């Protein structure tokens, strides 16, 4: 009989605002224990999931499963890129953008059962000033929302809604200079999202035609727009039709430079980070294996 595959479940206890006390029991019921030997670790601090995934590579685990949202996936995926150890996902986040795109079930037991097939897909990895991202990185309005969300105690979709309303009331668009594959642009923008996958999470599609394994990033520039247009913008986001809005410009590229007047709060897969006013963004094609 072949040896069982050793898989590490990394559980983020705060993601999605959901308790995960019964998670281990659920895995023992849904995972094929003849094929897999599960181990469980709970994160105790930000970036802990990355440390655990790096250890798992050394300890020759066969897969590391992110039990959390896009931030947890980012930490684990950043460690696993180029390692041949696949990432699995049990979606337990607030937005779950990557899992929704990959068609991973939102139901916990169904997502665990999906791991039994152990089928993988190779996905691209974006890099912004050397920080890896798998879903979407952005600056402007969405980065300010992620900063507000990270500082709030409410998680889940309601937490995002509260942050959007907070930020919207005081937000001012900025001027950005961009170079996308050698072509220069200057734009006054409400926000700029650099999308590897089409959606932020919660089925809000900023880049409806983005593909996670085409070696290309979609630079979505949302221009300054009058407030009365907001309901239309929201409609486009959830109708997968932002590319049809007069206020959205989507430019594909592989090498992107973005410059602003002052330092930037950016979000990387939904987590805020302060970076310099000069951003350099590249893509490593098909560099992470994801179980889906
Ligand atoms: N024990 C912990 N205490 C506090 N923060 C933690 C802990 N473990 C992980 N984190 C941090 O929690 C943050 C949020 O996690 P994650 O993104 O997975 O959930 P989410 O924000 O609710 O979901 P989504 O990204 O899908 O919207 C991550 O940035 C991670 O670093």
From TrEMBL:
Its cofactor is Mg(2+). GO terms for biological process: phospholipid biosynthetic process. GO terms for molecular function: ATP binding; kinase activity; metal ion binding. Keywords: ATP-binding, Kinase, Lipid biosynthesis, Lipid metabolism, Magnesium, Metal-binding, Nucleotide-binding, Phospholipid biosynthesis, Phospholipid metabolism, Transferase. SMART domains: DAGKc. It comes from the Bacteria. One of its GO terms (cellular component) is plasma membrane. SUPFAM superfamilies: NAD kinase/diacylglycerol kinase-like. Residues 2-131 form the DAGKc domain. PANTHER family: LIPID KINASE YEGS, SPHINGOSINE KINASE. NCBIfam families: YegS/Rv2252/BmrU family lipid kinase (TIGR00147). This is Diacylglycerol kinase family lipid kinase. It comes from Rhinopithecimicrobium faecis.
